[in-house]
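Regression report. Comparing outputs from two consecutive submissions.

Submission 1:
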Amino acid sequence: MKPFRIHRGRVAPLDRINVDTDQVIPKQFLKRIEKTGFGQFLFYDWRFGTDGKPNGNFVLDQPRYAGASILVAGKNFGCGSSREHAVWALADFGFRAAISSSFADIFDNNSTKNGFLTVRLSESEVGELMRRAQEIAGYELTIDLEDCEVRDDRGFRAKFAIDDFVRHCLLNGLDDIGLTLQHEAEIVVYEKRHPAPAEWARG
């Protein structure tokens, strides 16, 4: 997966708490097995009417937030079902990271496995970022995973905590497969010593 080191991008504020994964990507769109193609359905029930036409009222559909790659959201973001598609939809839409005061555990773990960074800041810090994104046109943030810091050009600066192993994987673009392939040489040696069973043994 793509390494995450230092990212600067436009911020979109989602001033809602307890945003569940069924709102992030509704169940009727979970028919694909690929990780791509879900972005167009992100927050579908909030962005589109019953006739399938965009209502134009949702924050992500406002021109000032076009191309946003950092989402700032209320507490307990990603609660609800365990669908990994929620992270896929956010990433496919163009987001690289989300900032909140708290995330649901399963969503947080799914994010890590897909190179999507979740940043926890205090509620007051999240509130300040939300305010700036709403009031300042084209507001941008820099998320520095190397220094574990979020900052802007207007004096905001905040440190965030992250598990060392998770940080290592994100910095180096290592998902579970990537971690396994770090031991490819040992795997090859093992396979040579333990040849595949004969056809009759495989049934």
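Submission 2:
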Amino acid sequence: MTEFQRLCVYCGSTSGNRPAFLEAADAVGRLLAGEGIGVVYGGASVGLMGRVADAALAAGGEVIGVLPDKLFEREVAHDGLTELHVVTSMHERKALMSQLSDGFIALPGGYGTIEEVVEAVTWTQLGIHAKPVGLLDVDGYFEHLISFLDRGVADGLLAPDSRKLLVHDTDPAALLERLRHAPTARQPNGGEAPAP
């Protein structure tokens, strides 16, 4: 079973138009803080990103933001975080978020969220890191992505063991428990893959 010091949370810099998205962001922030798990996220004060951070901070949790300098004003940097790292590129952002985290959770979001979570699970698959990755499927938001991945298995393009690396649930606490028991890639000698 994996124990987490920090989890990376990927989610939208906008809030979407469903109250359930905001409720899920609040729930994840509170849950992680209540479990003594720090939050690593994109550093914004707006959208679902800001809600996760605010909820975790309000519950006494550690929140670390990582924000590219070019997005500093556009994404409205959060000024109340435990730590805020300003980096020079999206590549540096993702690498640092991964280095600071023991696993990953994706909430609803757009292209950036999808790209980040798919990269994270690909790094697990390739053994670049040995960290679990999960989707919080709020109001069926990830339903079609989950079906797409299952289609990849059915069509022989995604190995069943690789498919199992991305876990999902509709409840934050249940997802956290799944992450604790999720499979991760191992090096050929049986050891865990190193962090990137």
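Expected: both submissions complete independently.
Actual: both completed, but the second showed a warning that disappeared on reload.
Relevant detail on submission 2: The first helix runs from residue 19 to 34.
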